[in-house]
Amino acid sequence: MRTLVRLMMAAPFAAIMFTPALAEDHSDIWYAEIPSTAYAVVAEVQAKPGKESALRDATVPLIAKVRAERNNLLYFLQEDQERPGRFVFYEMFRSLDDFEAHNRTPHVQSWFAILDDLADGPVKVTRLRLLTNHAAEISR
């Protein structure tokens, strides 16, 4: 009986201790501002062997320049931790036209021009379609 009482008294503490923390809902902060026309891509480029630092040095300055573009909504540059010199971009623009205009900017054109010397092959681009960004639609 004592064991049962101890278990009953410990149960609320165990529930608190072992309940996973729930992520905060931030859907009202920024997601609702993303237009339904938003256009996103994931782009990847691999440096030639021995050119990892040179490609990194040429690519990092793009972050500030692209984020300053009027219709850029999101721009992240990552480097693969297991394959140094493999760079992955996540980019989102207000529309496909804005993405295409981005690719015509002088800073992006200059970056494309150096890829023959630094990259092991072309940039691989995966074009994405935004499915939804409203909490009510996500919960269905």
What does this entry look like structurally?
It contains six helices and four strands. By secondary structure, it is α+β, with helices and mostly antiparallel strands. It has a four-stranded antiparallel sheet with strand order 2-3-1-4. Strand 2 and strand 3 form a beta hairpin. It is globular, with a radius of gyration of 23 Å.
Keywords summarizing the entry:
Alpha-Beta Plaits, four-stranded antiparallel beta sheet, single chain, alpha+beta
Describe the protein's topology.
Blueprint: H1 2-18, E1 39-46, H2 52-59, H3 62-67, E2 72-79, E3 86-93, H4 96-103, H5 106-118, E4 124-129, H6 135-138
Tally of alpha and pi helices: 6
Inertia-based shape:
globular
**Corresponding CATH architecture:** 2-Layer Sandwich
Question: For the record, what CATH class applies?
Answer: Alpha Beta
Structural class, by secondary structure, is: alpha+beta
Query: How many distinct beta strands?
Result: 4
Strand-residue proportion: 15-25%
Summarize the structure.
With 140 residues, this protein is α+β, with helices and mostly antiparallel strands. The chain is 40% helix and 21% strand. A 4-stranded antiparallel beta sheet has the order 2-3-1-4.
